[in-house]
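Narrative of accomplishments. A recurring question from our advisory board has been how the design workflow behaves on a single, concrete structure rather than in aggregate. To address it, we present the structure tokens for one chain from the evaluation set, followed by the sequence designed for it. No filtering or post-editing was applied between the two.
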């Protein structure tokens, strides 16, 4: 089996942003774990566990990820990304990343993630939030362009969304 590549990872990112769940989940091992060190989330197990966590999010927000840094060695990926979320409803109770949001508000977060690869598929992912910003009612494409302007040179022109 050929080593996992930088371009393979970009295909994964593009499938996430396109909401092409079949392609996105084809990158996951059946017994994948996603560790989000957050007391509300914890460790998600299997493709179904990941899907069950994220699908409700997509009911209330559009999310697009911008790759800022990608390092791939064939068996591991270290990745820094910024995600922009545009909410389509008001969320008061508990908020989102500590912010209360209204319809049309945008939140941006910066996350690092570490992926371990087995047999060409993601076996485990550890993901950690390290910055967050409440942007309010801004243009989503502009928020994405702003992130792209700070990405590693080779990632600045990766197509993110329509």
């Amino acid at each position: 089996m050929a080593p996992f590549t930088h371009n393979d990872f970009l295909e994964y990112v593009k499938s996430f942003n396109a909401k092409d769940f079949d392609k996105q989940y084809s990158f996951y091992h059946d017994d994948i774990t996603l560790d989000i060190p957050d007391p509300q989330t914890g460790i998600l197990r299997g493709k179904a566990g990941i899907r069950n966590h994220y699908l409700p999010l997509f009911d209330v927000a559009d999310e697009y990820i911008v790759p800022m840094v990608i390092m791939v060695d064939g068996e591991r990926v270290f990745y820094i990304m910024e995600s922009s979320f545009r909410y389509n409803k008001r969320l008061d109770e508990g908020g989102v990343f500590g912010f209360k949001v209204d319809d049309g508000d945008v939140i941006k977060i910066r996350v690092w993630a570490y992926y371990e690869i087995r047999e060409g598929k993601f076996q485990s992912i550890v993901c950690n939030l390290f910055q967050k910003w409440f942007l309010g009612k801004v243009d989503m494409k502009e928020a994405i362009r702003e992130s792209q302007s700070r990405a590693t040179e080779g990632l600045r022109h990766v197509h993110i969304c329509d």
